[in-house]
Design goal:
The complex is a heterodimer of chains A (146) and B (166). Chain A is built from six helices and seven strands. Chain A is an alpha/beta fold and 146 residues long. In chain A, the strands form two sheets. Chain A has a five-stranded parallel beta sheet with strand order 3-2-4-5-6, sandwiched between helices. A two-stranded antiparallel ribbon of chain A has the order 1-7. In chain A, helix 2 packs parallel to helix 3. The radius of gyration of chain B is 16 Å and the shape is elongated. The two termini of chain B are 26 Å apart. The relative contact order of chain B is 0.27. Classes of the chains: A alpha/beta (146), B alpha+beta (166). The interface between A and B is medium-sized, with 23 and 27 residues.
Chain lengths: 146, 166
Amino acid sequence: MEQFAPVKRSKDGQPIRYLIVDDSVFARKNLARMIESFGGHLAGEAGDGLTAITEYDRTHPDIVLMDITMPQMEGIEAAERIVQSHPDARIVMVSSVGYQENIVAALQRGARHFVQKPVKPEVLYEVIKYVLGDDASVTSAAGAGA
Amino acid sequence: MKMELIQPFINSADAVLAQGLQCKTAMGSLSMEEEAYRRKGVAAMVWVTGDIEGRIIIDLDPETAVRVASTMAGAELPESDSLVRETACELANQIIGNAITALNDQGFRFRVHPPVMHTSEEGMKSSEDTEALVMCFETPMGSVFMNIAMRYNRRRQPDRAAAAGS
């Protein structure tokens, strides 16, 4: 997989910590490979919305990548509940169902952005940088291993 | 089943397979399934409910499933690996999700349910109100089959609006 210039936390230069939420093990592994190529760190994983809420409370990640269609509790409801408890939570919805009503519903209920599956790493990379804003900085690839 | 309903699934399968496998795909056969559907190997099924209801199965023979999963996972996987079955589910999820997105733009309203492994040997066959179509996509890793059995549940939104205005 292509390597990207690492994205780090501005405040302490540490890797961005991610929570990945998807009922598909395959999708979680695929996203984990991508965040690794962005220089990120996997803080936790969840296979449904309910577990996502408890994992968020436990890990306090910098960013959440959240699927929509999941058993027990869908991603949009989980995002809303997380944002109610943690207004600063940064949640990016990652779903194959990308019609406008779905996107609007997710954004209205607290998600910061939406990425449609199949995920292109270069698209997710740009979205993550955009969502993190000034709280993240991109280090040069040459300096990453120094 | 009208072509307006089928075409988004064909377009979506073509795009998702091409991106996931990093190759060109070709549409092979397309046929009406008269008899009960017989599973070919590793199959994932997604139910949709709403203006149109039914199920879609993505089905790969075992060897193709291993090659596709290994390519998408970026590592050689044994046939026994659960990721092989997971890959079929994720393929189904992406193909159907993208198709539903396109159909939603045409005014159809759906709910997509999470994919499940289709383990029975036989599935639903065509009936008076539910037509089952099987299409085959040729890839360098083997054939990927998509079986669609759906029926119109109610008129889509623009048609309902037109009927209400007449």
